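anyone seen this seq b4? input:
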Amino acid sequence: MKYYLTALLCAGTFTVATATASLAANGVIKRACVASDRAAATPSRCGCIQKVANDALSRSDRRTVAKWFSDPHQAQELKMSQTASDDALWERYQAFGQLVQAVCK
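predicted toks r here
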């Protein structure tokens, strides 16, 4: 009985982890990317960008960056901002962009 419950718990954990990974691959960056009017914004490439974002950016950063797909001017405003937090986000975004270029060809 103990073995059965342990196996059931492990199977449930695996199912939740798989579902979570699937949802992460369909996150806010991917949705914004696919919804953009860019010709190169294929579901495959946008999924790759989302995966890189999951590793390189915080959840808050991902929500902010996703908004830039529909309004790139927001990114320019952040770049020109003089606050330390905006400067830090811009640096993380630049590093993210370099990773995307290297990984999502």
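Confidence is low (pLDDT under 50) at residues 1-24. The helical segments are 2-25, 28-35, 43-56, 59-70, 72-80, 84-103. kinda curious what u guys think
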